Automatic annotation (TrEMBL):
Organism domain of life: Bacteria
Pfam families cross-referenced by the UniProt entry: ABC_tran
Domain ABC transporter, chain residue ranges per copy: 2-247
Family: Belongs to the ABC transporter superfamily. Ycf16 family.
UniProt protein name: Fe-S cluster assembly ATPase SufC
Keyword presence, Lipid metabolism: no
Gene: sufC
């Protein structure tokens, strides 16, 4: 589904990614862990097409397409979803308005029929109920006045409505309490743990992986993947820390 080969990228003239190679197949969940400044968020932003992140070498293909040649909205229409560490607030735009516009834009780009207002509201309320978000919050401006946990639940609802093929979640566990962490884990498992979908989950800590069991764990340090393994690698990192596990690379 996603194939990254020798990817190099920079932002503000500073090289951050220095040769990432990674393959994610349908049905797989991959976790990327690493110390601050390792390049984890840069990888997410580069794959998502965020302005200011320039690819200087390497390739990335998504479902056989050249991902890097697509505009951000084209990547979204192709089935890529990018979840942010700090979801932004959008005053004056309701969740329902935002999500219906986004979903129908993607459906149109894929040659599918747009959902009517009634069809969309039924879908949105169903996803909100499944993920424990008060349906009344769908009427509120996007993330405005939401707590950290509510923002992340809201993002899970967005993901459920959009139904992407690949979700790239950038430290989605940041700042969450136990209940919100469980809710996010439930959302990822419910929406994305399917044979035709995949997840790239970026996190500092093992705690989210108690709820979302990854197939593979990768350690990113100094812009490179320096070690890969199974779920037990995350437990080792939690116990020993990054310096002990990756030595001088993380120093």
């Amino acid at each position: 589904m996603l194939k990254i080969e020798n990817l190099h990228a920079e932002t503000a003239g500073k090289a951050i990614l220095k040769g990432i190679t990674l393959t994610i197949n349908p049905g797989e969940i991959h976790a990327i862990m690493g110390p601050n400044g390792a390049g984890k968020s840069t990888l997410a932003y580069t794959l998502g097409g965020r302005p200011g992140y320039e690819v200087t070498d390497g390739t990335a293909t998504f479902d056989g397409q050249d991902l890097l040649a697509l505009e951000p909205h084209e990547r979204a229409a192709a089935g890529l979803f990018l979840g942010f560490q700090y979801p932004v607030e959008i005053p004056g735009v309701s969740n329902l308005q935002f999500l219906r516009t986004a979903l129908n834009a993607q459906r149109t780009a894929r040659g599918e029929k747009e959902l009517s207002g009634g069809e969309f509201i039924k879908l949105a309320r169903g996803e909100a109920d499944a993920l424990g978000l008060d349906p009344d919050m769908l009427k509120r401006p996007v993330n405005v006045g939401f707590s950290g946990g509510e923002k992340k639940r809201n993002e899970m609802v967005q993901m459920g409505i959009i139904a992407p093929k690949l979700a790239i979640l950038d430290e989605t566990d940041s700042g969450l309490d136990i209940d919100a962490l469980k809710a996010v884990g439930h959302g990822i498992n419910t929406i994305m743990r399917k044979p035709d979908k995949a997840v790239l989950l970026i996190t500092h800590y093992q705690r989210l992986l108690d709820y979302v069991k990854p197939d593979y764990v990768h350690v990113l340090a100094a812009g490179r993947i320096v070690r890969s393994g199974g779920p037990e690698l995350a437990i080792e990192l939690e116990r020993e820390g990054y310096a002990e596990t990756i030595g001088e690379v993380a120093a």
